[in-house]
């Protein structure tokens, strides 16, 4: 049985109830994080909390929780849910008013809801056992504040569904200039002639914790060239390797894009190096 956390109480997930007037439900008015945890060890916890803090500030939700309080909730969720390979979902909404009205309510406490779900084992840098991914592509039609990890994910859901309906695992998105932004629930990297590139952080994409860890680890611990720069879709379509990164996947090698093979259609050597270094250094942060 899965144990959740709702407004200061741990309880079985199916007993967690939220008012239909909660602004998370009515407006998607909230912020969330997904923190990976392997055998009780949280990955990138401080970075996730920093992003949560930025998001709450960005949409003016006041929640006076210390880092220690978040840490103790996360640790307890891991313990109560068996300390396996878990994604910890942490959500803060603007809370439940007594009416539906767009402006921020006064004197309403935010709702804090957390639960744990199973994720795959931390991937090893092994070509023969690694899970591979196929992607569709589509113009990015979401809002212009994609750097905020908002619970209002309808745009992402519709883009993800487009790939799913094509039998793919993800949808890679591009802006009206045909420049890569990210994927529906991942960041994106490409490799060409051993040079790794990923779009720079701006309002068009989420500052992914996995993305940022990977960039830092590669810069510190490898001789590989890594560029944060505008990446055109022509480059994505002609890349030797494409990777999608997220907290629940780490670095996912993409071997098919819009039905065509990426590079030679197999996992690339640079992915092996990157995943190996990521595995070695991911807990340094
Ligand atoms: N998705 N971009 C988007 C739009 C995302 O939703 C995510 C994460 C990422 C990768 O971010 P990170 O490395 O911090 O997980 C990029 C989470 C896992 C989700 O919504 O389930």
Total number of beta strands:
15
Give helix % range.
25-40%
Number of domains: 2
Residue windows where pLDDT falls under 50 for at least 5 positions:
none
Oligomer: single chain
The CATH class label of the largest domain is Alpha Beta
How would you state the average pLDDT, rounded? Answer: 97
- Give every kind of bound small molecule, once each: N-(5'-phosphopyridoxyl)-D-alanine
The description of the largest β-sheet is:
9 strands, mixed
The CATH superfamily of the largest domain turns out to be D-amino Acid Aminotransferase, subunit A, domain 2
Under the CATH scheme, the architecture of the largest domain is: Alpha-Beta Barrel
CATH topology of the largest domain: D-amino Acid Aminotransferase, Chain A, domain 2
User: What Rg is obtained from the alpha carbons, in whole angstroms?
Assistant: 19 Å
Shape, principal axes of CA atoms: globular
β-sheet strand percentage? 25-35%
